[in-house]
Each structure stands twice: as structure tokens, then as C-alpha cells.
């Protein structure tokens, strides 16, 4: 077992967190992750109504007697969700840990203030992709920051900085604990993140490809058969970059963006309307059920896909990660011993 601040704070066996992936982080996966000894986050806005979200909260509680968290991701949209309502539903269900993403200026204080109406013991993990945003989240009261490297699925930001650099930079400037995210899929990566100063890792793509993940087996097979080179970066021309699986649809999006970018004046953003039918969230959600991973929709996938070769249960995955972590630590200890012997002979 790898014990530290994160495992003690969240009462988990291994410092691993399952991110609140849209349309994926549902009760069966969250409960399985939590029961396996890691920490799972339920996706709030996967549910279009407070009533359906409340049902999912109760379903999760029926599948595990351990604490779990809720992801609240607030991104620009035409229809603004009832953020306060989802937070209250979570608090009423006993949730005290929140994974947040988006603008933290309103979100973090809102959760903190609402938490005071209950027992006040709230832990906020804020996700971001730059050191600048991590510092802002820290200043606004985040208890822990999850920093997304360029390798991550979904939104890696616009700076294109890898997890290796981001974690080292966070260690230099942040006072709050940090989770590594982007490019992590096994126990060896966990040890690497810990060595860079992180208190654990936040995994998405790896948990996407587990037995309890509520998506079609065809999608899981695509991940197993894929490599680190089988992702695309889309929506770069809109300054809203997203890393997704390299399927026929995402290739088409990149093609359209390339053509439009050449035609537009420098600094002018292209018309999203030309891409909307291809990248629609509803289409991606339907794809998870149909299994048409090539034409069904755009779906987020990180470069960690290259490290994934099977579809284990969450319990099998966590047990394996613990073994891998100990193997890496033993190898480091052996290497350190050899170095010490060499130095003593100098």
C-alpha cells in the first residue's frame, strides 16, 4: 500500500482518483472504483434534471458504503445548469468532496458557502491545465488541485505543457497538494507522479476501459487496440482544444479546421456552426451506447490509451497498480543502493 496525505484525507487505500467523466462516471463505475480502494467522482451534469441526478446519487449509495465525490464542471453553454441545485442535492446525499472544473471564482465560494449550511467539512479538488489557473484556484480556497497535462483526454488547455513539467512547476509554487492528471494509467506512473511531488493521480481514460465502465464494448476494444498516437486535437481554431479519439469524425473536424484556418485572417476564429453537427455532445453520448466509435460521435480519449492493453474490473486494476507501484519503488531502492556503493568507492 502507498499511504500519504491523500489516502488519509479521503480514507482510501491507494492515492488514485477517478475523474468525473461526462456520460461515463455513473453509479456502477464510481461505486466499483470506490469499493476497490480508490476514490470515485460521480458526474453531476451528465444528468439533465435534478431528479435524475438524485436517483443516481441514491443508486451509488446503494452500491457502496464508502464516501464518493461529485464532479461539478461548469463550461460556457447556451443553457446554464442549476449549479446550486446540484450542489445541494449532493450535500443532502452526504457528499462532502467535490471535483470542480471551469471558472473557480464563483464555483469554489458557492460550494464552500453551501457547505457551511451542513457540517462545513467540505473538500474541493479543482481541475485545471496551467500553473496560473492552479494558483488562482489555491487563492480562492481549493483544498487540492488536479493539474491536467497535455497528454490528457478532453481539454488540455492551450499551452501544450506535459504532466512532467506541470507537476514539477506546481511543486515549486503551490502550497496546496497536487494530483497529476494526463498520461497516467498504471502503478509505475503513480510512482513517477509521487516522485515529482504529487500526492496521487487522477485517471480518466484508464477507468473508461474497465469492466464496470458503462460504455459499449466496441469502444473499450478500440482503446485496447489503440496507441498513444491514436488521438486528435480538435477545436484548436476556437481556442477550445480537446483531445479525442482519432476516428473518422475527428479527422473530418481537423480537416475542416485546417481548411478554414488557411482561409481566415490571422487571429480570427472560425465559425463553430460548421463543426457543431460533428462534435455535438448528444451524438457522443449516443455513441457510448451504440458502439459505433468511428462514425457515432466524438469522444474524449487521452494518450494513456497506449498504456492500456485489457479491460479489467476496477478491483483487478487497483490491485495491479499497487503491485506495479511496489515494483517501481523496489527498483528505485535497488538503484539507489547501487549508486551509494559506487559513490562509496570514489
Gyration radius, in Å: 20 Å
What's the count of strands?
A: 10
Categorize the overall geometry. globular
The largest sheet has its strands arranged as 1-2-3-4-5-6-7-8
Describe the structure.
It is a single chain. The chain is α/β, with parallel strands linked by helices and 346 residues long. The protein folds into two domains: 5-215 and 315-332, TIM Barrel; 231-300, no CATH class. It is built from 14 helices and ten strands. The strands form two sheets. It has an eight-stranded parallel beta barrel with strand order 1-2-3-4-5-6-7-8, surrounded by six helices. It has a two-stranded antiparallel ribbon with strand order 9-10. Helix 2 runs parallel beside helix 3, helix 2 (27-36) packs across helix 14 and helix 3 packs parallel to helix 4 (83-92). The radius of gyration is 20 Å and the shape is globular. Keywords: Flavoprotein, FMN, Oxidoreductase. This is Inosine monophosphate dehydrogenase. InterPro entries: Aldolase_TIM, NMO.
Question: Key features?
Answer:
globular, 346 residues, alpha/beta, 45% helix, TIM Barrel, 14% strand, 8-stranded parallel β-barrel, two-stranded antiparallel ribbon
Brief write-up:
The chain has 346 residues and is of the alpha/beta class. It has helices at residues 5-10, 27-36, 50-63, 83-92, 104-116, 131-140, 163-173, 187-195, 205-208, 217-225, 248-263, 276-279, 281-290, 314-344; strands spanning 16-18, 39-43, 69-74, 97-102, 123-128, 144-148, 178-181, 200-203, 231-234, 242-245.
Amino acid at each position: 500500500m502507498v499511504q500519504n496525505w491523500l489516502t488519509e484525507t479521503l480514507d482510501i487505500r491507494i492515492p488514485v482518483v477517478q475523474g468525473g467523466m461526462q456520460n461515463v462516471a455513473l453509479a456502477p463505475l464510481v461505486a466499483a472504483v470506490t469499493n476497490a480502494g480508490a476514490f470515485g467522482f460521480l458526474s453531476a451534469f451528465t444528468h439533465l434534471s435534478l431528479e435524475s441526478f438524485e436517483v443516481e446519487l441514491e443508486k451509488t449509495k446503494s452500491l457502496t458504503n464508502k464516501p464518493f465525490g461529485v464532479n461539478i464542471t461548469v463550461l460556457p453553454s447556451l443553457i446554464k445548469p442549476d449549479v446550486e441545485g446540484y450542489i445541494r442535492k449532493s450535500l443532502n446525499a452526504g457528499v462532502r468532496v467535490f471535483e470542480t472544473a471551469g471558472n473557480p471564482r464563483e464555483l469554489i465560494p458557492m460550494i464552500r458557502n453551501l457547505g457551511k449550511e451542513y457540517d462545513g467539512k467540505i473538500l474541493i479538488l479543482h481541475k485545471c491545465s496551467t500553473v496560473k489557473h492552479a494558483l488562482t484556484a489555491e487563492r480562492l480556497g481549493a483544498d487540492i488541485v488536479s493539474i491536467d497535462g497535455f497528454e490528457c483526454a478532453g481539454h488540455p488547455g492551450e499551452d501544450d505543457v506535459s504532466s512532467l513539467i506541470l507537476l514539477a512547476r506546481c511543486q515549486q509554487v503551490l502550497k496546496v497538494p497536487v494530483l497529476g492528471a494526463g498520461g497516467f494509467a498504471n502503478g509505475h506512473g503513480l510512482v513517477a507522479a509521487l516522485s515529482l511531488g504529487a500526492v496521487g493521480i487522477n485517471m480518466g481514460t484508464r477507468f473508461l476501459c474497465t469492466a464496470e465502465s458503462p460504455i459499449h464494448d466496441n469502444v473499450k476494444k478500440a482503446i485496447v487496440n489503440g496507441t498513444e498516437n491514436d488521438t486528435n486535437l480538435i477545436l484548436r481554431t476556437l481556442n477550445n482544444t480537446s483531445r479525442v479519439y482519432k476516428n473518422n469524425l475527428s479527422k473530418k473536424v481537423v480537416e475542416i479546421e485546417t481548411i478554414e484556418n488557411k482561409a481566415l485572417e490571422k487571429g480570427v476564429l472560425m465559425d463553430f456552426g460548421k463543426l457543431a453537427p460533428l462534435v455535438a455532445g448528444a451524438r457522443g453520448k449516443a455513441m457510448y451506447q451504440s458502439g459505433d466509435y468511428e462514425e457515432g460521435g466524438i469522444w474524449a480519449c487521452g494518450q494513456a490509451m497506449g498504456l492500456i492493453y485489457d479491460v479489467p474490473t476496477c478491483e483487478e486494476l487497483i490491485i495491479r497498480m499497487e503491485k506495479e507501484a511496489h515494483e517501481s519503488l523496489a527498483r528505485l531502492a535497488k538503484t539507489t543502493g547501487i549508486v551509494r556503493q559506487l559513490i562509496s568507492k570514489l
